[in-house]
Amino acid sequence: MPAPALTLIDLLNGYRVTQALYVAARLGVADRLADGPQGSEELAHMTGAHPGALRRLLRALASFGVFAEEADGRFALTEVGALLRDNVPGSLRAGVIFYGDRRHWGAWAKLEQSVTSGETVWGPRAASAFFEMNTKDPEGAAIFNAAMTSFTSAFDAAVVAAYDFSRPATLIDVGGGHGALISSILRANPGLRGILFDIPPVIEGARTRIAAAGLADRLEAVAGDVFASVPSGGDAYLLKWIIHDWDDEHSLTILRNCHRAMKPDARLLLVERVVPERIDPSADTQSTLLADLNMLVLAGGHERTAAEYRTLLGAAGFALARILPATTRLGVIEATRA
Ligand code: SAH
């Protein structure tokens, strides 16, 4: 087959890989392999799957390097497959479950609708439809919040290393979810105090985690609405994966509310994917550009270029100071009050 056809067919198979990973994550296969290789019969017995069908799933994923098929036919974890384990540092299991779950998966089945209308798949409703839905659907909200914690945990060491968080005395994480990132930052900077700010149901879930992490004396959890106001008096305001959720109008409201709450010399830190001006297929940008489509489908926002961030920040009274790359897929955009 000609190489272009092979390339296209491989791209086309993406959705099958997503579901294969999702099912393996749901069944908890990786946790059953934590102590060593297992045969598909035993794994099927332990996970409640059909032995023959599970073997086919594991062999398909082994062809992608997610599991390894041993000479004796048993399956073992690879470094990639180990990330499907639950409750281990760096686990992406919750992220895999979010992508494969019927809500997210079903929304992406309507991509054509979004590309045609320019609106989220929830239709011509308020841009906040996604987050409103999350407050009405506790199971969906739990899947989403856990996914954010898992994806954020994959990046938090890089963010902690990219920016000097030892200078601010108080850091406010606006829309900080269950607090994965600010907890990592506080652990690495013992002199720092923090406020985690998010909507009430998310903050409720965050409190037990903060206590369990032993950070209750330095990290306060505050519930509120970023479109009304954000906690005042911080030295640095962190917004990770917030502005990308919103169109420019909503983003400006959020940024102006931060501006109003900030001390004159405080810093604003947006942690976001930064879209390149021109697409180079050999660069590590696919994930960023697919995230942009995800914003179209789910949230109504978009990923932005450095120039777009500069303009948006300027309109809210900020000056973009610098963009520090945490990884090729995430930047720390630092801004000051202009
Ligand atoms: N910063 C976290 C979560 C990003 S997801 C991380 O990177 O992992 C976006 C977050 O914005 C969610 O936690 C969501 O609950 C929060 N959010 C959405 N609408 C909000 C509002 N009106 N006020 C405060 N937080 C909001």
Please describe what this structure looks like.
It is a single chain. This protein has 338 residues and is α/β, with parallel strands linked by helices. It folds into two domains: 4-84, Winged helix-like DNA-binding domain superfamily/Winged helix DNA-binding domain (Arc Repressor Mutant, subunit A); 125-337, Vaccinia Virus protein VP39 (Rossmann fold). 48% of the residues lie in helices and 16% in strands. The protein is built from 15 helices and eleven strands. The chain has helices at residues 3-12, 14-27, 29-32, 40-47, 51-62, 93-100, 102-108, 111-117, 129-136, 138-162, 180-188, 200-212, 248-261, 286-299, 306-315; strands spanning 67-69, 75-77, 170-174, 193-198, 219-223, 236-240, 267-272, 274-275, 304-305, 318-327, 330-337. A seven-stranded mixed beta sheet has the order 5-4-3-6-7-11-10, with helices on both faces. A two-stranded antiparallel ribbon has the order 1-2. A hairpin with a 2-residue loop joins strand 10 (318-327) and strand 11 (330-337). The protein is globular, with a radius of gyration of 21 Å. The relative contact order is 0.09. It binds S-adenosyl-L-homocysteine (SAH). S-adenosyl-L-homocysteine binds at residues 131, 148, 152, 175-177, 198-199, 202, 225-227, 240-242, 245.
